[in-house]
Design goal:
By secondary structure, the chain is mainly beta. 11% of the residues lie in helices and 58% in strands. Strands 1, 2, 3, 4, 5, 6, 7, 8, 9, 10 and 11 form an eleven-stranded antiparallel sheet that branches. 21% of the residues are buried.
């Protein structure tokens, strides 16, 4: 296992939570439709309050995509342990944006592999937001409105 990498990731997550400020984000539930964006943007997103934060449930042409949950905003990083993997996540909110960083570490005897996902929501009032999604360096940027 690569302990220096794990320690670095944990250190970055801890320092990020220490800098977190109270959120002034305007949260709005409901159905949002795609205005513009890069390839692979879902056509619709249903937003709802969930888990001390909110959840986004994207879909395209009636087909649901993986939901993204922004849970326990500004409450530090969380560690989940599952057989063969460890998931480190943190959700931070400042001003008009919320950022979720999640690192999944797959462990197999002496080997490990880290995969990172980052989601950022920039709120532009109660009826419009920008969602930026990145998984291992690939992703999309999409503007939605009611």
């Amino acid at each position: 296992m690569h302990w220096p990498c794990l320690i670095l990731i944990l250190g970055l997550m801890i320092s990020g939570s220490a800098l977190a400020q109270e959120s002034r984000l305007v949260s709005s539930d409901g159905l949002f439709r795609l205005n513009s964006g890069t390839d692979n943007c879902p056509f619709e997103i249903e937003r709802s309050q969930d888990c001390d934060g909110f959840a986004m449930h994207p879909s395209s042409n009636g087909v649901a995509h993986e939901s993204v949950r922004f849970c326990q905003i500004n409450k530090g990083f969380k560690v989940q342990q599952k057989p063969g993997q460890k998931i480190l996540s943190e959700v931070v909110s400042r001003d008009n944006y919320v950022r979720k960083q999640e690192t999944t570490i797959y462990i197999d005897k002496d080997n490990s592999l880290s995969l990172m996902q980052e989601d950022t929501v920039i709120q532009e009032g109660p009826d419009k937001f920008l969602w930026e999604h990145s998984r291992n360096g690939r992703g999309f940027s999409c503007l939605y409105s009611k």
